[in-house]
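<instruction>
Derive structure tokens from the sequence
<data>
Labelled lines for chain and fold:
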Amino acid sequence: MDDTLTIFLERKFHRKKPRILIKFAYSKKLIAIIRAVSGCYWSATLKSWYLEDTQENLKIITTLFSGICKIDVTKLHPPKRQLNSSQKTLLNNFYKFLKGKRYSKSTVNTYVFFIADFINYHRDKDLTLLNNRSVEAFIETIFIKRKYAVSTQRQFISALKLFTIYYPDTHIENLELTRPKRSRKLPSILSPEEVVAILQTTKNLKHRAIIALLYSSGLRVGEITNLQLSNIDIVRKQVKIVSGKGRKDRFVVLANSFLPLLQNYLRSYKPHFYFIEGPGRNKYSESSIRKFLQKNVALTTIKKKVTPHTLRHSYATHLLENGVSLRHIQELLGHAKPETTMIYTHVAKKDLLAIQSPLDSILVSLEKNNKQEEKFLLSGNIL
């Protein structure tokens, strides 16, 4: 064991899910090990590697680094909740309530986690006495201390709104609870030439087929891993997406240029049930897609961070630049609200490029002026 190396494990919410963070001082040896872990990613925001918070992943990390370096778990175990039996019963019934509403497993677990923390914070108070100030105190103390993102706080408010429906005996007024505004970050977009460059550097036939379909049909990574062969209609040039985000079905278009690659892939790999399959004909993992995409992007001159969702963003933006209406793009992407699709109007270049900078207007005006002393070259006369 190298006693000079230590990894620090802790728990944190990131990208709307509980994660295990793995932090350590820069070490090529440790980086090489962590990169081999499936589903492990680097976060520039957290300045840490992270995994989904599961007992299996925790065991993988501790086993992997055991005997190689020190493992510090002091921040891994937050103080245990001290709930009484009636509070535990209430949370258990709230869990069943959410399951009955058919929320996803991830959403149910996240919402119950937040409400459990909220109840634990006010464990010495009668729940019927809790009000909006009780909510504010919890956020000011727990959320600020844990440095939760605005999006996480919005999730908590959503969870609390459902909890007050299930347990209406509190003095928490739903209508007065306002969610903090979401940060509106513009997505990273690839140019058409950059998309082609990624496809050209991807020599593996299966990988190229995956990247091409993600971009050409605007699929989410979870939609392509769940895609069944029976839902691909080559004759009609359509793909049926079953139970996409929000449990919505939709149809997307198969690009004509993708069909030869698709047929080549199907003949070569002969998938049985899913469009892409891993060992034992099981579903292909999302983490594998992210990893090989990252490797192929590294072979290009592209400096942007590229993920499978970047291809979807690029697909939508390029459709808009080609004159496709926002309403049709909304249908193709499976967005529930048109406001979600509207973000692509901020990154589309078509209309923005037609706007002339006032600096260009000034220089054009000077060029048209016949007075020699007023002629000006922006790049000239620099000392």
Remarks:
- The chain has a mean pLDDT of 84.
- Residues 29 and 68 are 10 Å apart (CA to CA).
- Strands lie at 6-14, 17-23, 41-43, 48-52, 70-75, 232-233, 238-241, 250-253.
